[in-house]
Amino acid sequence: MIGSSVNIVWFKRDLRLEDHEPLQQAIEEGLPVLLMYCFEPSWMRAPDSDLRHWRFVWESLEDMRQRLAPRHIPLYVFHAEVLEVLDALRAVTTIRTIFSHEETGNRLTFDRDRAVAAFCQRHGILWKETPTGGVTRRLYHREGWEKTWIERMSRPLAQPDWQYFKPYYLPTDELAHLFTPLPSAFLQPSSAFQPGGESAAWRYLNSFLYERKSSYFKDISKPEAARRSCSRISPYLTWGNLSMRQVWQATRIAMEHTGDRYNLSAFSSRLFWHCHFIQKFETECRIEFENLNRGFNRIRQEVRPEWVSAWAEGHTGIPLVDACMRCVMATGYLNFRMRSMLVSFLTHHLWQPWQAGVHHLARQFLDYEPGIHYAQFQMQAGTTGVNTVRVYNPVKQAAEHDPDSAFIRKWVPELAHLPPPFARAPWQMTPLEASFYGFRLGKDYPFPIVDLEKAAAQARERLWQHKKDPLVKLENQRILRIHTKRRRADETTVMGDAQTIEALLKEATK
Questions:
Q1: Helices 244-258 and 261-283 meet at what angle, rounded to 10?
Q2: Would you tell me how many other CB atoms lie within 10 Å of the CB of residue 143?
Q3: Residues ≥6 apart with Cβ < 8 Å to 111
Q4: Virtual CA dihedral for 7, 11, 16, 20, nearest 10 degrees?
Q5: How confident is the model at residue 499, as a pLDDT?
Q6: What is the per-residue burial (b if ≥16 Cβ within 10 Å, else e) of 383-412?
Q7: pLDDT for 256-295, tens place per residue?
């Protein structure tokens, strides 16, 4: 029998209870509210999905449940497709409105949301979606985007008034089929990964803003030191334990309290770029599968599976590449420069299409954010056409950012007994030196999969030559028109530097 009307707050990648506009709006409407999350089997099976993601989500939900417990408010966690859940809920209650954040996910979640919209229209259900962060739906130019971003970040936080919350209690016996057990591995914490949830998110953010940030700019490119000196809040932004607005405003407060404008301004600019790349994906989501610049469709089409496997397993014979891959596979984290180097090595030195490795790294990153992931993958692969071609030299990167080879020795123990120069390039040892250290290249550690210098030179030549292609040039004009803003009639530029943000902030707060 159908019960009274209810409003639903559908949690997606916004797993928090603070600064949550859909939750605030649902409470203000005065009807009973049902809080729900769906572990969707189709998403859990997706090629860019991994156990580490769903463990983090489960931990986030458990944190929310603990916060709700004193108020005796249930959070229903279903293990079923969302359409199946909504259809079952219609059998026991009247759904008035579904409240949720807009989601910039992968193609699977986009198609799912289109199906939900059709379901709601078919059954007379209102679905109110709220923008996430600084991302704007159906935006096909960037004029005014910076000001909109600053304005959104400067708004007061959306704090739900819990004293007016009316919980809705489901007849769970009638819906038992939607609560099938989750895989046990989801429910087992792992100390190798950052824990999910708002509580952990604020610990990481505050420890960065008031303690760890002093070495942020100095250590941002160092694979080992960055593990402490960077904020490490990216998973909490990805899964919504923190809103971008919360982080932005907390950073402004910390900047005033600590006086450290140098490090925190650099950090703030990266918050802006976080949304910039998601906006790029929101505007042109086909880049999940296709080159942003279609002029690059004619190169790098063949896949060598054995090379991709060596890269994905951390057995390329290039120490820094292998160390980075093994590290991110084990912990879910790697700093930005080393992520870029992994993509550069795959697409430039190995000359593999970026599609051959994009899902593998998506599964490894605990902070996998589709809007950033695909845009950055293509930027590093050189298929945007408008960005500078960057071919990272892993040996040079190791010398500059891991000079004592501590990171390499940690993750490639086969090389732990070698001095730093040989640990980052063991093929440079003479037979006498190899004998002295008891090291056998090809047995103790693989031969390099490619000659770094020759492969890099060939990649640069091919890419720079292809940038002259008429189709590439034509596509560049389209890309600049859509994804950048025009500051003067004769100047098109990519926006978002720290000075621009600071100037806009001052203008917004006059």
A1: 160
A2: 10
A3: none
A4: -50
A5: 53
A6: bbbbbebebbbbbebbbebbeebebbbebb
A7: 999 999 999 999 999 999 999 999 999 999 999 999 999 9
